[in-house]
Structures are given as structure tokens and as C-alpha cells.
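Support request from a user on the community tier.

User writes: "When I paste my C-alpha cells into the form, the page sometimes reloads and wipes my input. The last time it worked, I copied everything first. Here is what I submitted, just in case something in the input itself triggers the reload:"
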């Protein structure tokens, strides 16, 4: 269940804010702090990590 939430949230955020996210994990975490109120640090890290991998995949395609 949680993995589905992480992927869904990351995809929606990337659709809404495609120019805000980069291939840098740390910067993506900072952007998430601005956009979302995520109480759980591991959950925020998972979303940021998935966003990072999605951005990297887009740049290689």
C-alpha cells in the first residue's frame, strides 16, 4: 500500500511541478518540504528518491 502511495504522489507532483524537481536527491527533499507536509521522514525520503529516479529516467530518454 505504501509503495503505491509513494509512486502516485511522485507522479502527481512531477506532473504539477515538472520544473521544480532535479536529479539531485537533496534538492528534491527541500522542494518537498515546501510543497507537502510529510510527517514521516522515511516517507519523504522515499518520495524524493522516486522523484529523483523518475527525473533521471526522463533525461536519458
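"...and here is what came back when it finally went through:"
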Amino acid at each position: 500500500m505504501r509503495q503505491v502511495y509513494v509512486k502516485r504522489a511522485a507522479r502527481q507532483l512531477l506532473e504539477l511541478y515538472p520544473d521544480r524537481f532535479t536529479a539531485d536527491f537533496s534538492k528534491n527533499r527541500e522542494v518537498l518540504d515546501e510543497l507537502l507536509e510529510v510527517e514521516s521522514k522515511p516517507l519523504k525520503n522515499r518520495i524524493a528518491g522516486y522523484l529523483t529516479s523518475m527525473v533521471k529516467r526522463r533525461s536519458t530518454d
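Agent notes: The reload is a front-end session timeout and is unrelated to the input. The CA atoms of residues 25 and 36 lie 16 Å apart. The chain has a mean pLDDT of 92. Escalated to web team.
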